[in-house]
Design goal:
Layout lengths: L1 H8 L3 H13 L7 H13 L3 H11 L4 H13 L1
Helix pairs in contact: 1-2, 2-3, 3-4, 3-5
Length: 77
């Protein structure tokens, strides 16, 4: 997770995508749908093909408040 986080800080879409998946499933981190969606959003905006489809699928399941929180989180990343 630390290596992925470091790569994500440097803007690697694959790292954000993989971190998003980890937060989504709770793999090595606490499960956090907001963090997951924020990471997947960043990867999708960078053109990561799998992140784009997951962004829309996951986004359809979030509440308006969760969308707002994830947007705010992605802005801080």
């Amino acid at each position: 997770v630390e290596r992925l986080s470091a790569r994500a800080r440097h803007g690697y879409p694959e790292a954000n995508y993989r971190l998003g998946l980890r937060y989504l499933s709770g793999d090595g981190v606490n499960r956090d749908i907001i963090e997951a969606f924020a990471r997947i959003r960043l990867a999708a905006e960078a053109g990561h093909p799998r992140a784009v489809s997951l962004f829309y699928t996951l986004g359809a399941k979030l509440t308006a408040d969760e969308h707002h929180q994830a947007f705010d989180r992605s802005q801080t990343l």
